[in-house]
Amino acid sequence: MTRVAIAGASGFIGGYLVARYRAAGVEVRTIGRGASADAAWGDAAAIARVVDGCDVLVNLAGKSVNCRYTTGNRAEIVRSRVETTAALRTAVESAAAPPRVWFNSSTATIYRHAEDRPMTEREGELGSGFSVDVARAWEAEFFAGSLPSTRRIALRIAIVLGDGGVMRLLARLARLGLGGPQLDGRWPATRARRSAGTYHEFRARGGLQRFSWVHLHDVAGIIDFVAARTDVDGVVNVSAPNPTDNRTLMRSIRSCLAVPFGAPAWRWMLEPGSAVLRTETELVLKSRWVVPERLLEAGYEFEYPELEPAIRSILRPRDGAAATEPTPQRRG
What we know:
Strand content: 15-25%
Helix content: 25-40%
Strand order of the largest sheet: 3-2-1-4-5-6-11
Low-confidence stretches: 318-332
C-alpha cells in the first residue's frame, strides 16, 4: 500500500497505526476532530479529497464506551459511529478512485455473554442490550448500499492490549494491591436501566467471565494481512486465538509486575466505584468468548497468540522502553 486514510486517528489504535505507517514510508491522511487532521468531520468536500485515491481506508472513529451510559452519552456513542460511517460511505461512493479496501471498526461485544462456547463469525450468536444495539447499527450502516470497487471489512475487535488503554488502568490497580479478579454478583436494577439495555445481568461466578483480547501489534498486522487478501471480506473477529478469563488475566498482570497479592473486587464494590470513575461494570463483567476463525483459516500468524507474552511485551519491554512494532513492509 502507498496511501492510507485513517479516520479516528487520534485514538489509541489510530495513533499507533499512523505512526507505524509513516515510519514505513506510507502516505497517511487523517480525518478527525483535531487541528492536525487533514479533514474534519462535517466537511464533506475535505473528507472526499482524503478518501479519493487512497489504497486503504480505516475508520476507527467513535466516542469511547468507557463512560457512564447516560442518555446523552448513549446518543453520542451511536451518533459518533453511525454518522461518521455514513459520511465515509458518501465519500467512497463519489470517489473517482475509491479505496480498494475499507476497514471499519466494530466490536466483539456484539456477541452474547458466553460461558458455554466460543463465538465465531459463522456460529456466533449476537447478544442484546445497548452495546449490542450500537454494534448492530454500526455494521448495518457500514454494509449499506453498493460499493462495487471497494471491499468492506467490519473488524469485530476484542479488548486491545498495548502501552495505554485498559492495560494502563489494570497495571495501576495491580501496583496498588487491587489487582485481583472482578467478581460478579447480584445488584438491583432500575426500570430505566433495564429499558435502556444498560443493566448487566449476573451470570459468571468467581471471576471466570471469559476475556477475549488482542495485542495492538496484531491489530495492525491483521489490517495489513487482510488488505492483501482479496478473498476476505465481511465480518472478521479481531481477537487472539487463545482467550482467557478475568481471574487469569489479573493473575498474569500481577505476575509480570511481581506483585504477590491482589485484592478481589466484588460487584458491590464495582458498582459504586464505576459510578465514581464514570464507567460501566459491563466492561469487566460481561463474558466475552470470541475466537478469530476466519483469520486462522486464512493463515494469519499472530505475533502474540498467548496472553502472558503479550502482557510481558507491554509491562516489561526490553531496555525499559515501550514495546515496539517491527516496521511493516511497504506494499505496492
